[in-house]
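Throughout our pipeline, every protein is held as a single compact record rather than as scattered files. Such a record has a labelled line for the sequence and another for the backbone structure tokens. This encoding replaces a full spatial description with a residue-level series of whole-number codes. For reference, a complete record is included directly beneath this paragraph.
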Amino acid sequence: MNKNFRKAIYICKYQIRQQLVSPRLWFLFFLFFIYFYLNEEGIRFFCKEADVKASPYIFPFLTNDWICQIFISGGFIWGISPMGSNDEENLFLKFRAGERTWNFGNCLAVLGIAIVYTTILFLLSFIVLLPNITISKEWGSIWKTLAMTDASQKYNIQLIIDRFIINRYTPAQAVSYSFGLQILCLGWLGLLMYFFNSKTKTMSGLYAAMIFVFLDIMLSNTFMEKLYPFSPVTLVQLRSYSMDYLKYGVTIGKSLVFYLIGIAVYIWGAVNISDIKHV
């Protein structure tokens, strides 16, 4: 293994460890626990009233919800914004590894933290439904009833259980797509932020990433839906792959290309482009 690549992996592991012991990130997870608990309260009550347990596949509906998606994406950006800061230990590692290796290791860490972050949110999403959970390969009657009837209104369930997701995907497909797209979305946003932050030595990347977090709302409110294929938060929501969005050119394949090219470009830029000098 190349010596510089080994150094980059070490930096990646170091940054992931630093983030996972950061009060900033765990405060976020605490807030998400409360948010999910309150957001799923009506579902728990419905399960008790119907005396039927739900299958543990709520995650695709949470990532499909635009409000929840703003919290997930915006929270991630805020949580990792100190990545690569100029504290004493970071500066020492940067000096030992070299600028390019340092940046490459941090980019890998952004992707690693995106995976950990999404995994923890996935676990929290159904943990708060306990003990109203049953293991099943199917959607089950709870999700189908909430999607196909007015039960959500009767039980004051604000989360939209989209019938398109249930009709179009199996639970395994829906969870796989939503999980993978969420990681790619967070990686895209996180690397965009890191690229600008590292090159300008300011927090400009945080503001640039937050613009993309709210781009979905801006496009829908300004009737510029044709730009949906370039909105990372839009592409992570499974409702965006219905026939209504196909006319805008939104497909799973194109979304994967958008995310992967963006991630590759940001990593290349972070490693190879010189810092912007301030006058």
